[in-house]
Amino acid sequence: MSKVFNLLFSLFIPLLSLSQLDTTIIKEQNMPEVRVDKDFSSKYRRQLHLLKRTYPIALKAEKVLTEYEEHLAKLGKKRLEKKYSRAVVKQLKRQFSYSIRDLYVSEGHLLMKLIYRETGMTVNEILKKYRGGFSKSFYDGIALLFDQDLSSTYDANGDDWITEMVIQDIISGRIKFNLTVKELSKEEYKKNMKEYRKKKIDL
């Protein structure tokens, strides 16, 4: 009896070891990729700061585009489309003109990327699609102000992974974030520019 037990035991131990090895391999294969960045905390805070003014504008831009598409589909007449386009241009200028002018270059660059993230199109593609429509006043102004690449894209798994982490934290509610676009008046813009120039002189 003991010989039989010893034989079964000697056969079972290697199988058990192999099973444990297989489980370890499977666990290792299923482990998510862990990114390490020694400056992660400072980069995270910087992106959060940049997103405070740019992310709400990108979300609003996506909303306006969606509403514009839906409304145009219902109009059907060129004359009505042009009239509607002019009204949207007026609305965009009122809401965004000075808010966009007030952005720093780094914020303008991020805004271009975020517009791609939210709409699935680069600013250049949007301009081509809506050539003659409302978009030129809004989007072309960004490029002129910041001398940006109109073909900027967004890579959530590549260069923009930290930005994406911040956005996911915003969406999940893990961090407090105001998604309201602040409409900046001409007077407020001039005041901000005056303060900005004074800071540059002082430096």
Describe the structure.
Helix 2 (40-75) runs antiparallel to helix 3 (78-101) and helix 4 runs antiparallel to helix 6 (135-146). The chain is built from 8 helices and no strands. The chain is 75% helix and 0% strand. It is globular and about 55 Å long. It has 203 residues and is mainly α. Mean pLDDT is 76; it is low at 2-28. The protein starts with a helix and ends with a helix. The chain has helices at residues 2-30, 40-75, 78-101, 105-119, 123-129, 135-146, 161-172, 186-202. The longest helix has 36 residues, at 40-75. The chain has one domain.
Please sum up the structure shown.
By secondary structure, this protein is an all-alpha fold. Helices cover 75% and strands 0% of the residues.
Number of domains: 1
Structural class: mainly alpha
Order of helices and strands: HHHHHHHH
Taking Cα atoms only, what radius of gyration do you get, to the nearest Å?
A: 27 Å
Count every helix, treating DSSP H or I runs of 4 or more residues as helices.
8
Arithmetic mean pLDDT: 76
What is the strand tally?
A: 0
| Through-space gap between termini | 91 Å
Low-confidence stretches: 2-28
Strand-residue fraction? Answer: under 5%
The percent range for helix content is over 70%
Mind describing the biggest β-sheet?
none
Shape: globular
